[in-house]
Fold this protein.
Amino acid sequence: MHSQQGNGGSRTPADNAHGTLIPRFSSWQQLPPPDPIAFPIAYPIMTTASSRLALSPAQIEQRLSGLNAWRWDTAEGCIMKSWTFDSFRNLMTCLMQMAELAEQLDHHPHITTCYTQLDIRLSTHDAQGLTDLDFQLAQMMDRLIDGHFRTT
């Protein structure tokens, strides 16, 4: 193995199953920033105080009807969705992009992954329920995944 210099830190490539070199990073902080050409997504940032107010059940139902395949778990007080990606690498790439979206909104999802399975739960802890911010992030995640990844 040899070391390469690039993207702000050293990395050591390793052979993958296809015989190509893939970089190994010692921490997530060494990962290169998202590629704006591969992921040319810009979203407006909306984190006003009104976007953090708890929604009524009727408001939640109305906003949920505008989402694709998201479910409302009334017991947990969250909306949730699951995806199965075509590869672990694509799931991890998507997670890095989702992290950028969450940071833009200062709103962070509950994330569970297992190999190619991704489960997301959204709620606003400060409001002790669902807010417009949860639905905005859900829409942003759907646009990201629908536009750039193969899922089932």
Remarks:
- Confidence is low (pLDDT under 50) at residues 1-31, 36-44.
- DSSP finds three helices and seven strands in the chain.
- The two ends are 36 Å apart (CA to CA).
- Strands lie at 4-6, 9-15, 21-24, 71-73, 78-84, 110-114, 117-122.
